[in-house]
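sanity check this chain:
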Amino acid sequence: MKYGILADIHSNLEAFQAVLAFLKKNRVEVMVIAGDVLGYGASPLECLQLLAGEQSVACVRGNHEEALLSGEFSRMRPEAVTSLIWTRQQLNRFWIDYLASFPFIICGANFALCHGAADRPLSGYLTSRDRAKRAFAARLHRICFCGHTHFPCVYRQKEDSPEVELIPADFNGCLKVKLEPGWSYLINVGSVGQPRDGLPVACAGVYDTGQEVFFLERIEYRVEVARERILTAGLPAFLGERLCRGV
């Protein structure tokens, strides 16, 4: 089976549309999303409608969904708070209830999925080997997919070994990893709608369970259109400018 593995769409309709087209071209059968469908961008309703229209899809809750639902913004940057308050005003009760239905963790037959890390599903940042060690200790499956950092990379740990290896993305921001027996994997699938690795192109991951391979491609999209939407909505200009720089 082929799974499309996405994260951090962040209300970027143009990026989401481009990634969906890529997944369909690659005959992905099921799509799973590691949270943060909303926040930052100017197309929250359109992204939710697109998501809900997919037949085989599951999504976990990200920290932006949690903040929107709870109204607790104390740990967020001002531009994130501004975008979430604006986003909340765009959504009716149906979509609020839809967001509230997102679980914090999904555990399937082949992998687990959360937004941050298994030990801190909403807010855990996988940014170092030491941080990955703690996540491995709390993992719910041999393979765990996540997002949150907006940087694609893979950590792996061999059975009965305390050491953690980092597999970074290549110079094009892409990954291809053979998932070998005897190893556990933490796979950060980057961001669809707001990559921060200096590349203004969307991240799209595919996990092929038959081949036991994960690969992540970078997909071009209409960045200027997404930027213009942000400016037209009256959201902070920085949120649009960062899309063009991939930061």
About this structure: The chain has one domain: 2-245. The two ends are 33 Å apart (CA to CA).
